[in-house]
Amino acid sequence: xxxxxxxxxxxxxxxxxxxxxxxxxxxWFYIYGREICRMNKNKESAHEGTxxxxxxxxxxxxxxxxxxxxxxxxxxxxxxxxxxAGTNGATPFAALIQGADGNFYGTTQSGGDFNxxxxxxxxxxxxLTTLATFDGTNGATPxxxxxxxxxxFYGTTQxGGTNAVSSGGLGTVFRITTNGSFTSLMxxAGTNGANPMSGLMRGSDGNFYGTTxxxxxxxxxxxxxxTSNNTLDVLASLxxxxxxxxxxxxxxxxGNFYGTxxxxxxxxGGLFQVTSNGTVSNLATFLVTNTLPQGALVQGKDGNFYGTxxxxxxxxxxxxxxxxxxxxTPSGTVEPLYTFIPSAQSSTTFPDGAAPYCTMIQxxxGNFYGTxxxxxxxxxxxxxxxTSDGTFVKLAQMNGTNGANPYSGLIVGTDGNFYGVAKSGGxxxxxxxxxxxxxxxxxxxQSIRQTNNSIAFSWSAVPGKRYQVQSTPExxxxxxxxxGGAITATNGVFNSAVTSPNVTLSAxxxxxASSHQFYRVVVVP
Length: 525
Hints:
mainly beta; nine-stranded mixed beta sheet; five-stranded antiparallel beta sheet; 1 helix
């Protein structure tokens, strides 16, 4: 994300004209070393030097490249950080997590010394370190990670462990530290669940919660709680109306847990709620409009839940469609928001993506971000945004070289960029880790006005971004003074495909006794 200091400026000379009229003369400047270079209307530069006339001069500065170069805008860059080669892991399926130490952590479902998966660390400088490999006894085919309050990570494996070894095992729960100290905590036994397809989530009570795809009293899966003393309690066993959950749980603001199932009376999946004491309620049965939700839900800022389904006709009712994005109220009312549809030329080509398995994330402006495992012009998957007003934006495409088939969602790093994994593709065809950087357009001054002894100005902004107005009496200072606190842009829509801001912020300041004053607007974290 763009967080650079200002290097362009506007100088507004305030001149007292005939009959006391206040006249404005605008001149463009950019800082070049310790000199001030003026841009004339032909965009040729002329050095003026650092001395200024002792007239009343107000200078508002910002990152104003757009004013000098009309049509320029921010961009979207997808960069491959790691290509898995087998020995260091293969087929990453679950989303990354950024640890408290700033490093990224994740798992691969295969590869490693025994080809049963790994746990890895990715440092901020791009170094990949294998922390643990699975051999079957300690688990196999790991899911995602969650960090505990003590800094260690907890996770599950879909197979392996000490039970049902002849059939590949029923899965495990494990703990691993940042330096690779690994402990297999328990093996699923069937009655308490079997074959978890998703990782754990940390509840507000400090315990971990999860689902298993099989096991329980009816073999349709179970919902369990894993306590801090390594005890697993089955909260509920699922049945044919709400079973076979692939995604994990999300804790609602009301303290209950919500999840999706791939079974259900319609065979298209459903939505359930479970209380902390294990009472399960079936809230919704999905129909052909939303079929087979695979990822966990996310609760939006409006209190509703949002998710994706791998199949489904959605609002357009076309049987050839390949997946939806939907919302669901806490009481179970489901509404398809967007459908992944084929192109007009071919029913098998999905230019905007297809088959989303991911759990989405929401930003401060209310926009959702996620991945589709297939589709795009390269048929390898896409990264998308669904804006707060329901507009779908394809941000990036996987082309095989940078990865293919992203099944998990994205996370936002502390640097403001999006990080994700692709299950296949990359330099060795066995998956990749990628980063998606979205550069926001710089703020552009839109109006300047004076009222008595106050100067006010407004600038363009991006919803969800924070802006700080700063001032100084010198154009090339060592310190800038904040004018009030940071301002967060709200409302409106920011279309990341063209990075076109459409929100305006404003600020004002009193004109003091100083002969000149400089201002700038910067994007802050």
